[in-house]
Design goal:
The complex is a heterodimer of chains A (789) and B (227).
Chain A: H1 2-15, H2 17-45, E1 57-65, E2 71-75, H3 82-89, E3 93-99, E4 103-108, E5 113-121, H4 125-128, E6 133-136, E7 147-151, H5 152-159, E8 168-171, E9 175-183, E10 196-199, H6 200-206, E11 221-226, H7 232-239, H8 242-246, E12 252-258, H9 259-262, E13 268-269, E14 272-273, H10 277-305, H11 307-319, H12 324-361, H13 372-398, H14 402-407, H15 420-451, E15 461-465, H16 474-484, E16 487-493, E17 503-504, E18 521-526, H17 530-534, E19 538-541, E20 554-558, H18 559-565, E21 574-577, E22 580-588, E23 603-607, E24 613-618, H19 624-638, E25 647-648, H20 649-655, H21 658-692, H22 694-702, H23 707-741, H24 752-779, H25 782-786
Parallel strand pairs in A: 5-10, 7-9, 18-23, 20-22
Antiparallel strand pairs in A: 1-2, 1-11, 1-12, 3-11, 4-5, 4-8, 6-9, 7-10, 8-9, 13-14, 15-24, 15-25, 16-24, 17-18, 19-22, 20-23, 21-22
Chain B: E1 2-13, E2 16-28, E3 33-37, H1 44-51, E4 59-64, E5 67-68, H2 74-83, E6 85-88, H3 100-110, H4 115-128, H5 144-157, E7 162-166, H6 174-191, E8 194-198, H7 202-205, E9 210-215, E10 218-224
Parallel strand pairs in B: 3-8, 3-9, 6-7, 7-8
Antiparallel strand pairs in B: 1-2, 1-4, 4-5, 9-10
Classes of the chains: A alpha+beta (789), B alpha/beta (227).
């Protein structure tokens, strides 16, 4: 029985090639999208879970409180003394490590010198994470302060080989380190990634300030391993007031949070996790299920639409003694065969699309054929898809009445009542419509933010790191750069103009209220020529000027800052900043410094010779390549030990919209796929439907209907469905996208045209899809259709 | 074997009952070869369908092999199809995706007959109907007469006690029709299979031994055929 059914299923597939191609093609695309998104979901889900200790690693987090003790903000960095204090006072804490932010550090060995993503960590870092050591001993690798651990790729880039144990490298052009370990490259889905690891003690030796116990500054990530049986909630209750005990002025509480949850549930509000990337993950999983469903709906629709062809078979089989379950089984089998072919095809498609998908999202997913989990995933997708696709057709078809099916007089409901099949088409297109609206809205929002005035001119602006010998030679560099003609402005600052990196509170001014102490001001340090180079508009007063010696104690305020401070005539007043008195010499227009979708925070620009970045404005009269090569040469000349890395501010600003861009690309990609699969189904469905109505068409033709009239007649029944789908989906899309836009302080509006465009586009695509079928039907020779009656 | 008592069938449409069959009462015994005749729309096919349990009468009782089958549950009906009733259709209704061999095999699969038994029965039927050479062909590669032979072979495969045939020669040329009717007669006489056929042709009716004339849903005449 099984064998015969299998044979028949394959034969009928072969016979109805178009039908099979539409079905399998749609399924394969749907399955590929689904697998891709599920793999991605798995990748996100696997964040920080790769290590043996993963479930027991916790991160110390800090809740910053206001005067009343309410949590204002939760930060993931803690103080340099946190770890030692925790270890000392709580026996539950077995061990732990402090970790610095990842930073490009210069590593050289005489021949090669390059910048590696580096972190300073405590030696127990290697105890927390059981990295795969190719060489070296993980228990001792970071015990000597002057040691360095490299990843496989980093070692190969410097030395050309991984066999580099005990080799010497020059670090930051300051100190010689010994390579004490080479580890296998890290997966990309970990929070604390790096290319090289050095010891925290080295960090303290190279810089004086990290060594001093300091409860006032939050700069490091603190990870701890807890005793396995620790009750986390109870432990967190014990931690209340812990910081205050050591540092009375602190208005903050430390708590521990599982590392494995940090990535997905890392957004905090009022001290409680309110999600994070998990939302995106849920969105993707929802999307994958939706697309698969669309493909399944195709299958169901086409299978039930082909009833005319199958009716006889069902009738005959029933008179031969086939039970309903026999027939259900047969149709299920057919659905599973199709799904199986679809899935095999989708694995091939997956291989081709994964690299592109990875590039798009900036991630690294591979489909591991040896991993049983992947096969379980595929098998479950197969079972679910086969079952969903097969269920409706099998129960629908197997329920046919024998006499009607043999007489070919199966009645299809006429009138306004929607059949199940029509409902499915409505669902398919409704889903596609929502995706189109989403794509347009996301795109519109990105454009909106991009087109927001930055408050400075980012075009032609670039920056290099202020490091090494450039500190002492900054003025020389500036003179040489300007006289070379490559640039028209050079300035130094404590942070990049493109990214918010510092804020301060506790400013003082005349007429302030108590609560004003808690206002956070963005802050940037610079010396001269900052506003001129960056092209920030001055609204009042002037920039820092060499002519005024007193300007070393001057400060500039942003428009917003003046607003929140309620200053009537800001220029000339003095304010208290970082505990010292500063003269306000100018007011500048607000700039976009942090999150571009947020309303600008009040900002101060303070004079101080603290610098990390050198920013320059290109000479518009010179070609870009010429200018950059001059800059490269001049910087290299003065600071030969560091590779020069020129970054364009436009590019840096672009990166800030990365998440939205990814979302937009995904919505676009999968929206197109959803529409495509839906149209495949519509194509198949319209071909069946017109075939069924060919007699009607022929009679109308004999009665004198024109081809256009016939095409309209045939198309209308489908366009009606698409129209219903649009009417239902547009409000849903409005609701969803309105919600999404609420995440942004600065947001575009959802105009009518978005919805009009979506409706028009969907109708247009649908009309194109069915036109071919209706045209063919309308052109058929009436005699051919009627003579078989 | 078949006992129909006061069978009525009507379709209600807008409050009006359209009678197809009225008070049909008849008995068909084991081994009979009955032809149901009458003009178009007389209710011949409906009567055959009721006998074949494809339709239920609106009123009346129907006993098959001494058992009341007027309204039968699906499982029981399938049981009867598998073991007692074979259908032959005017349009043959072979399954296009199956070869001749597979078409004949299908009812045996539903009846869960073992594979060796199946093979021998099919071989036997192919042999008897002279279609061994055609066993791997698909229905659309056969002539109408050949297709109907396969249809009959399929109906016989499950070794039914009764064959219900709805105008079995309606689509055939006269020479092929004669061949089929001769075959029916032989099956009836040599194998003792009860046959009920619906036919328009007086000539075909002569192959049987009893004719039921129906007009307007009523049995007008019940004649024995003299051979």
């Amino acid at each position: 029985m099984f064998k015969l059914n299998l044979k028949i299923a394959l034969r009928s597939l072969f016979r109805n090639k178009v039908y099979a191609a539409i079905n399998i093609g749609g399924l394969a695309i749907g399955l590929t999208s689904c697998l891709l998104l599920l793999l991605y979901a798995g990748y996100e889900w696997g964040y920080d879970r790769q290590f043996k200790n993963s479930p027991d690693i916790y991160q110390a987090m800090i809740n910053l409180n206001d005067q009343k003790g309410e949590v204002i903000r939760t930060i993931s960095q803690s103080q340099n003394v946190m770890l030692a204090a925790l270890k000392e006072e709580f026996p539950e804490v077995l061990y732990g490590a402090r970790i610095t932010d990842v930073y490009k550090r210069l590593v050289a060995n005489g021949q090669e010198s390059l910048k590696l993503d580096s972190r300073y960590v405590d030696p127990d870092f290697l105890k927390l994470f059981d990295y795969h050591f190719i060489s070296g001993n993980p228990t001792k690798a970071l015990n000597d302060p002057n040691s360095i651990v490299l990843t496989e790729t980093a070692a190969k880039r410097i030395f050309g080989t991984t066999d580099v144990l005990n080799q010497k490298v020059r670090f930051e052009n300051q100190v010689d380190l010994k390579v004490t370990g080479v580890i296998k490259d890290l997966p990309t889905n970990i929070t604390y990634g790096f290319e090289s690891l050095t010891t925290f003690t080295l960090y303290e030796n190279l810089n004086q300030w990290p060594k001093k116990p300091n409860w006032g500054s939050h700069d490091y990530y603190t990870l701890i391993k807890l005793n396995e049986n620790t009750d986390i909630e109870a432990f967190n209750i014990k931690l209340k007031g812990f910081v205050g005990k050591h540092f009375a002025a602190a208005k903050e509480d430390v708590f521990i949070y599982p590392l494995t949850k940090l990535h997905l549930y890392g957004t905090f509000l009022n001290g409680k996790s309110i999600g994070g990337n998990i939302k995106q993950l849920q969105l993707f999983v929802g999307l994958s299920i939706g697309i698969l469903l669309i493909a399944c709906i195709n299958f169901m629709n086409l299978a039930t639409a082909s009833t005319q062809g199958r009716a006889k078979e069902i009738g005959v089989k029933k008179t031969m003694g086939a039970s309903r379950s026999n027939l259900v089984f047969q149709f299920m089998l057919e659905s599973f065969i199709l799904t199986l072919i679809g899935i095999l095809l989708s694995i091939i498609l997956l291989e081709f699309s994964l690299p592109m998908f990875n590039r798009l999202l900036g991630i690294e997913i591979v489909f591991d054929y040896l991993n049983p989990t992947n096969w379980i995933l595929i098998f479950s997708v197969l079972v679910i898809t086969g079952f969903i696709s097969g269920s409706y057709p099998s129960f629908y078809l197997s329920g046919f009445n024998v006499i009607q099916s043999l007489k070919k007089s199966l009645n299809f409901k006429k009138g306004y009542a929607l059949t199940f099949r029509q409902v499915l088409v409505v669902i398919q297109f409704g889903f596609s419509v929502v995706l189109i609206v989403a794509t347009i809205t996301i795109y519109k929002q990105i454009q909106f933010i991009k087109n927001m005035p930055l408050g400075y001119r980012s075009n032609g602006l670039l920056e290099v790191a202020h490091e090494g010998l450039l500190y002492e030679k900054f003025n020389l560099l500036k003179t040489r750069l300007l006289s070379s003609g490559a640039v028209v402005g050079v300035t130094q600052s404590s942070g990049s103009i493109s990214n918010k990196n510092s804020s301060v509170r506790g400013l003082g001014w005349v007429g302030m209220s108590e609560s004003d102490k808690m206002i956070d001001f963005d802050q940037i340090y610079t010396t001269h020529d900052f506003t001129k180079t960056v092209n920030i508009r001055l609204l009042a007063g002037r920039d820092f000027d060499r002519k005024f010696a007193s300007d070393t104690a001057a400060i500039l305020l942003s428009k917003k800052a003046v607003e929140v401070m309620h200053l009537k005539s800001p220029v000339g007043t003095s304010i208290v900043y970082q505990g010292t008195k500063r003269n306000v010499v100018g007011v500048f227009d607000d700039i976009v410094w942090g999150d571009p979708s947020k309303v600008a925070a009040p900002m101060v620009i303070a004079y101080a010779d603290i610098s990390d970045v050198i920013t320059m404005r290109l000479n518009p009269d010179k070609s870009l390549s010429e200018s950059t090569s001059i800059i490269n040469k001049l910087v290299k000349e003065l600071n030969p030990n560091f590779p020069v890395e020129i970054k364009f501010i436009d590019g840096l600003n672009e990166i800030k919209l990365k998440n939205e861009k990814i979302l937009g690309t995904l919505a676009n990609l999968f929206g197109c796929l959803a529409i495509f699969i839906s149209c495949l189904g519509l194509f198949g469905l319209s071909s069946f439907s017109t075939a069924q109505r060919i007699k009607e068409v022929s009679i109308r033709k004999i009665l004198g209907a024109s081809i256009t009239e016939l095409m309209t007649l045939l198309s209308l029944s489908f366009l009606k469905l698409i129209f219903i789908a649009i009417v239902i989906a547009l409000p849903v899309a409005y609701y969803i996208m309105n919600n999404w836009l609420m995440h942004f302080e600065l947001r575009t509006s959802l105009n009518l045209w978005v919805f009009m465009a979506t409706a028009t586009l969907t109708l247009l695509i649908s009309i194109l899809t069915i036109t071919w079928q209706t045209y063919r039907a309308a052109k058929t020779n009436a005699v051919d259709a009627l003579k078989y009656e | 074997m078949i006992q129909l008592t006061n069978i009525e069938k009507y379709y209600a449409s807008k409050g009006v009952k359209n009678y197809v069959l009225r008070l049909v009462t008849t008995t068909i015994k084991q081994g009979e070869f009955v032809s149901i005749m009458g003009p178009s729309g007389a209710g011949k096919s409906t009567l055959l369908n009721i006998i074949g349990m494809l339709e239920e009468p609106t009123y009346g009782t129907y006993e098959f092999l001494g058992e009341d089958v007027t309204s039968l549950n699906e499982r029981k009906r399938i049981e009867l199809y598998r073991n007692h009733i074979g259908f032959v259709f005017q349009a043959y209704h072979l399954i296009d995706e199956m070869t001749v061999y597979e078409n004949i095999e299908a009812p045996l699969l539903y009846k869960k007959i073992g594979s060796s038994e199946r093979a021998s029965r099919i071989a036997d039927l192919l042999d008897r109907f002279n279609i061994v050479a055609k066993k791997d062909l698909f229905p659309n590669q056969l002539s109408g007469g050949q297709q109907q032979l396969v249809g009959i072979a399929r109906a016989l495969a499950a070794q039914p006690s009764i064959i219900l045939a709805d105008e079995p020669t309606g689509n055939l040329q006269s020479a092929q029709a004669e061949e089929i009717m001769t075959l029916f007669k032989k099956l009836n006489q040599e194998d003792g299979i009860t046959i009920i056929q619906v036919t328009h042709s007086e000539k075909n009716a002569q192959y049987g031994n009893r004719i039921l004339h129906i007009a307007d849903g009523v049995v007008k005449e019940d004649l024995a055929v003299l051979s």
